[in-house]
Amino acid sequence: MTGDGDDRAPGGAVTVALCGSWSHEPPCPLAPHHTAADRVDDRVRLRLLFATDPDDEARVRALVEDALARGEGVDPHGAVSWWRLLEAAPSAVRPEEREHAERLVRS
Question: How many CB atoms lie within 10 A of CB 51?
Fold first, then answer.
């Protein structure tokens, strides 16, 4: 990510892809989700938790990867951030995320 890029921009791009906009009434229509960004220098690692119907999982993953692969996000105020997707892969829910994941499933 460019040095002046907003760490939250990739997560915002995911939200727009899954929900249609940055802000909407809960619950998320397709996949309740949470993103967390961890930045070290010019690299941002995005961790995404989401819950969806098993029949929609492939669609959700494709939407997320497409949004991140575009490499551009615009915040609600019009500021643009750019990044380059280096890797995307699913992983298991971590023990410390389990409670949060369960809340997403219930929403």
Answer: 19
